[in-house]
Amino acid sequence: MSDARDTLFRHITMLQLIPRYPGWISTPALKEKLAEHGFLVDIRSLQRDLGQKLSSQFPIGCDDSQKPYRWYFDRDYQCQLPALDVPGALTLVLAEEYLKGLLPPVVISQLDPHFNDARQLLEQLAANGLSNWARRVRAIPNGKALIPAALDEATWHTVAQALLEQKAIDVQYLSRSAESEKAFTLHPQGIVSRHSVTYLLAHVDGFDDLRQFALHRVKHAALSDRAWQAQEGFDIDHYIQQGAFGYRQGIEDIELEAEISPSAAWLLQETPLSEQQSITPGPQEGWYRLNVTVPNDQQTLWWLMGMGANIKVLAPREWQDELKATAQKVLAHYPSH
User: Fold this and answer.
1) Element (H, E) at 105
2) Which residues are registered as beta bridge partners of 254?
3) Which Pfam families match (predicted)?
C-alpha cells in the first residue's frame, strides 16, 4: 500500500511540474526536481511513467527530435492542482492587466493558460459579487507606459533555460550603437524587466565585467558548449541598489531640498520619495518645503523634470543647474513669434 501511495504522490508531483506548451521540461530536469521533492527515480522509470502510464490518461506531449526528451502538456489543457479559487482568480486578472504594460507578449504568453483559467472561473460565477467587481477594476501602471519591446519566443525560452539551469549561451546581438550583429558567448546571471524592456545580466566569455543585454536585440540564442561561469559575489538586489538601471551619478545618496506646490505636497505626503522625507510649510504662501534623501541618479532627475513648474529645486546646486539648462533647451525648441 505504501509503494502504491508513493507512486501516486510521485505522479501527482510530476503532473504539477510539467508546463503547458510552448513550455517544456527535459527528462533530467524533471528527475532533478522530483528528487528535490523527495522522489528518487531513475531516468528509465521516469520515461516509462511519462510515455506509457501518464500519457494514456493526460494530454502529455513529447519532443523526441533531440535528446534529452522534452515533455509538455497540450497548450489548451485545463487543469488546476490544487483548484483555483475566486480570490486567486481575481488576483490573476488584475495581474494580467498590470503585467501587459511591463513585459513582452512572449513572456506574458507563458502565463496565458493561468489567466484563461482565471477568466473562465469568474465567467462561470456571473452572479458572484467578486466576479462583478473584477469587471469594474483595472490596474494602470504609473506614468506613460510604452509598448513592451517585441521579444522572440525561441530567444526567451533559451535564455530562461540557460539562467535556470546555469548554462552559457551563444548569441547574435545587435547593440544600439552597432550597425551589424556581433557574436558573443554569454554567462547569464539574472534577468531584469525595467519599464518596457527586459534585460539579461551576463558577462561575456573571457571578461569579468557584468553587462546588460536588451533581450529584444538578441537575434539568435542557443545553449553553448562552454561551461557556465558564475559572477563572483553577484547579488541582483545589490546590483540594482547601486544604480545599475538608474544611471547613478554618485555612490552616496544626496539631500534634495526644494519648494513644492500644494498638489505636489499632497502627492508626496501620500506616496513619499523615500523614508527619509519631511514636508513643512514654505516661505511662499500655499507652498511647502521638501527635504528628502534620494539616490544621486538620472532617474530622480527625470522625475524632477516631469514635475515641471510644481517644484523649485534649491539643492544640490548641480541639479539646479542641470534643470535650468534643460529648461532653456526646451524653450529653444519653441521660439517666440
Assistant:
1) helix 105-108
2) 294
3) WCX, WYL
Examine the pLDDT at 222 and tell me if it is beyond 80.
yes
Phi, psi (rounded to 5 degrees) for 211: -125, 165
pLDDT tens column, 76-119: 776 655 656 667 777 777 777 777 766 777 777 777 777 887 77
What are residue 201's DSSP bridge partners? 190, 212
Which grid cell sits at 10? 510521485
Query: For residues 86 and 133, is the Cβ–Cβ distance under 8 A?
Result: no
Give φ, ψ of 255 to 5 degrees.
Answer: -95, 115
Q: What is the pLDDT of residues 194-213, one digit of tens each?
A: 777 888 999 999 998 999 99
Find how far residue 76's CA is from the centre of its chain.
24
Cβ of 184: how many Cβ atoms within 10 Å?
A: 20
C-alpha 228/C-alpha 167 separation (Å) is 5
Q: Are strands 254-260 and 218-223 parallel, antiparallel or unpaired?
A: unpaired
User: Cα(297)–Cα(90) distance, rounded to whole angstroms?
Assistant: 37
Rounded Cα distance between 301 and 312, Å, is 12
Main-chain phi, psi angles of 220, to 5 degrees: -160, 140
Round to the nearest angstrom and report the end-to-end CA distance of the chain. Answer: 91
pTM of the entire predicted model: 0.59
Q: Which three cell numbers stand for residue 244?
A: 545599475
Q: What order do you get walking across the sheet with 70-73 strand by strand?
A: 25-26, 70-73, 60-63
Residue 262, burial from CB neighbour count under 10 angstroms (0-12, 13-18, 19+): exposed
